[in-house]
Amino acid sequence: MDIEYNEPERAFRDEVRGFLAENLPAAIAEKVKNYRRLTRDETVHWHRVLGEKGWLAMHWPTEYGGPGWSPVQKHIFEEECAAAGAPRLLPFGINMVAPVIIKFGSQAQKDYYLPRMLTMDDWWAQGYSEPGAGSDLASLKMRAERQGDRYIVNGQKTWTTLGQHANMIFCLVRTDPQAAKKQEGISFLLIDMSSPGVTVRPLITLDGEHEVNEVFFDNVEVPVENRVGDENKGWTYAKYLLTFERTGIAGVGISKAALTHLKTIAHEREIRGRRLIEQSDFADRLAEIEVELMAVEMTNLRVVAAADAGGVPGAESSFLKIMGTEVRQKISDLYREAAGPYALPFIDEDDAPVGPEFAGVAAPNYFNLRKLSIFGGSNEIQKNIISKAILGL
Amino acid sequence: MDFSYSDEQRMLKDMVDRLVADQYDFETREAARASSVGYSADMWRQFAELGLLGVPLSEDAGGFDGGGAELMVVAEGFGRGLVVEPYLASVVLCGHLIDKLADQTRKAEIAGPLISGETRYALACHEPDGGCDPYWIATTARADGGGYVLDGTKAVVAHGDSADHLIVIARSSGEPGDRDGLSAFLVDATANGVTRRGYPTIDGHRAADITLENARVDADALLGELGLASSALDGALERGVIYLCAEATGAMARACELTLEYLKERKQFGAPIGSFQALQHRMVDMRIALEKVRSLTFWAACSLDSAPDERGQRIAAAKVMVGRAGRHVAEEAIQLFGGMGMMEESAIAHYAKRIIMIDHWLGDHRWHMAAFRRAVADGENAWANAA
């Protein structure tokens, strides 16, 4: 047993560090560290930088352009990226639809879509949730009717993250409303968002941000060759997507970077002549969260190590999702508390800031991160998965 | 990074787990607990024969030179069976002090009977007015003739009532709370001037409050140099905390298993109560708490050779988590068992008692949280600044 990185692992860490130091634009890192929203161009730029280096699609097999890293290397990469303030990578293309295309897609789909992901020529969005299908995803209603070599698609998707920037969306659609079980009549379609009949409308969240959207489909024509795998087998592919490589789901690197930042604030900011870190209730809370985060970090590493040894993360990712999101939310909560009254001013990003720099985003970020325990399968759904898969209840 | 056991560790784990599974069922444990010394002399002999009593001791002392991982493997197995034998007191705590402090000749003399199981030791350190602080030592050691005279009171000494010898931490200089001036004395537990009030503890072990009144010991009772026992004491307590965390891990894992079995078999409203989502989610929360404890215990156990600040931080973090998450698991186990969780005859009640009361041994979650904060803030060994 040895919890320290070995020589090759340390060398890899240094290589990643060196690359980030040279290639991550300071302006982007600054924005990420301060929870500022990136522009589309900034996001695309960073993806292209990694794509050129061959580090963008770390979970892909090497034959499709993956770097061939071990789980420990992936862990190191994620941790170093978070520490340096690199933008979090968009998961929808490279980590979500790509594995499905690789596993179930046609040769033509692989040849066309995968290279375009590495060059970020397509910005993918996820079309899973609908107004009436959240945790009960299989009850989705968006309809795709076959007409010759096309599907005619009608319905609505919602909570489409960054859909305003996307040009492609993968959707679960109902192709057989008569199927005996609701899971059986679903297919998996790749839809060009520039098709006539697609409308994207912003949804403004409680932090004032435009991050999610609703997408309407009105008689949208989708070529049959854009279906992944077999008709009415989409649920199988959707489930595969949800279990694929989720050790990054705990967001340990992000939490560690955030906690480090929060500790710096606690050491610098003085209230009534005393630094926050010297105020025992605040310091207690900070230490408590740090202990929690250490537990998540080591649990994540244990799962990574099991994956390295050939074990496939299954319901373990549900543990990590719950533990990781809870601690991230606690950190954002303490940021808000650290800001005191200056958590209140709600200033447009283009206007002159009020109060200490971190304070301006403290409350919006706290509210924004309420989403963590809701999306990607709510934490209650994760508990259902664990009860069923691990506990056998 | 390598999270796998070595072949030797794997063998040790298999041996301990098999011993507990085959020979340490709840009834056996309860019978041992009810005996006058509070554990089974036969079982202790068996531990000795299997070599378990030498696991953490150095090869110099005749042991197997086990590190944190070996300690964790043994303690976790013992935790699954709620083992009541005085392994922590005699082997882990006293074994380390003997190893670090006694010179080579004395070490062989003292450690030999420890490893063979003939002689049992207990660490008389904490005092009635010191709470969790191991350095709050008011017990005095005064040079007298060729030897020393000890005076003071020791509180809740684990297995102090059945031990043959005590290792008494006493002060030849300084004030309670000072790290300097502490020495370790090997004292015959039945010597003149030593009074022991033995009693059972609520978590199934036994302990004693011990008064030393004009207790005379020879010069060779002093282990190591006069006044310089602190760093060896740090080491013993660090190992003790890792042992307790791993024991808690084993006990929590077993408590989760027992609760899960109960959820599947107990029926109400015509269905197993495990079919109710409210209870399923609580069961999942117990498992999450267990994983947190397991992860931090693992980290602590692998950090015995790390730099002092990292080591102190990780060990403290593990004990904090054991205190908090352990309590969660134990309380939930009782709740999910309903009335059966309240019964003395139920194994789960004894798991719950041990898991919760582990927080009271060798520093509770508040004490260790303070140590954690110091380690983080100062980058120094939490234990070194504990006072």
UniProtKB/TrEMBL annotation, chain A:
Domain of life (superkingdom): Bacteria
Record-annotated Acyl-CoA dehydrogenase/oxidase C-terminal domain positions: 232-391
InterPro entries xrefs: Acyl-CoA_Oxase/DH_mid-dom (IPR006091), Acyl-CoA_Oxase/DH_mid-dom_sf (IPR046373), AcylCo_DH-like_C (IPR036250), AcylCo_DH/oxidase_C (IPR009075), AcylCoA_DH/ox_N (IPR013786), AcylCoA_DH/ox_N_sf (IPR037069), AcylCoA_DH/oxidase_NM_dom_sf (IPR009100), Mycobact_Acyl-CoA_DH (IPR052161)
Chain ranges of the Acyl-CoA dehydrogenase/oxidase N-terminal domain: 7-120
GO molecular function, one term: flavin adenine dinucleotide binding
SUPFAM superfamilies (UniProt xref): Acyl-CoA dehydrogenase C-terminal domain-like, Acyl-CoA dehydrogenase NM domain-like
Keyword list, A-Z: FAD, Flavoprotein, Oxidoreductase
Any Pfam family: Acyl-CoA_dh_M
Residue intervals of the Acyl-CoA oxidase/dehydrogenase middle domain: 125-220
Entry GO CC: plasma membrane
Cofactors required: FAD
Family, similarity comment: Belongs to the acyl-CoA dehydrogenase family.
Protein name: Acyl-CoA dehydrogenase, middle domain-containing protein
Organism listed in the record: Salinisphaera hydrothermalis (strain C41B8)
Lineage: Bacteria, Pseudomonadati, Pseudomonadota, Gammaproteobacteria, Salinisphaerales
From TrEMBL, chain B:
Lineage: superkingdom: Bacteria
Keyword Flavoprotein: yes
Annotated Acyl-CoA oxidase/dehydrogenase middle domain residues: 122-213
Occurrences of domain Acyl-CoA dehydrogenase/oxidase N-terminal (ranges): 6-118
GO MF term list: acyl-CoA dehydrogenase activity; flavin adenine dinucleotide binding
InterPro entries the UniProt entry points to: Acyl-CoA_Oxase/DH_mid-dom, Acyl-CoA_Oxase/DH_mid-dom_sf, AcylCo_DH-like_C, AcylCo_DH/oxidase_C, AcylCoA_DH/ox_N, AcylCoA_DH/ox_N_sf, AcylCoA_DH/oxidase_NM_dom_sf
Keywords tagged on the record: FAD, Flavoprotein, Oxidoreductase
Cofactor(s) the protein needs: FAD
Domain Acyl-CoA dehydrogenase/oxidase C-terminal: from-to ranges: 236-363
CDD domains registered for this protein in UniProt: ACAD (cd00567)
Record-stated family: Belongs to the acyl-CoA dehydrogenase family.
PANTHER family linked to this entry: ACYL-COA DEHYDROGENASE (PTHR43884), ACYL-COA DEHYDROGENASE FADE28 (PTHR43884:SF20)
Protein's name according to its UniProt entry: Acyl-CoA dehydrogenase
Source species: Salinisphaera hydrothermalis (strain C41B8)
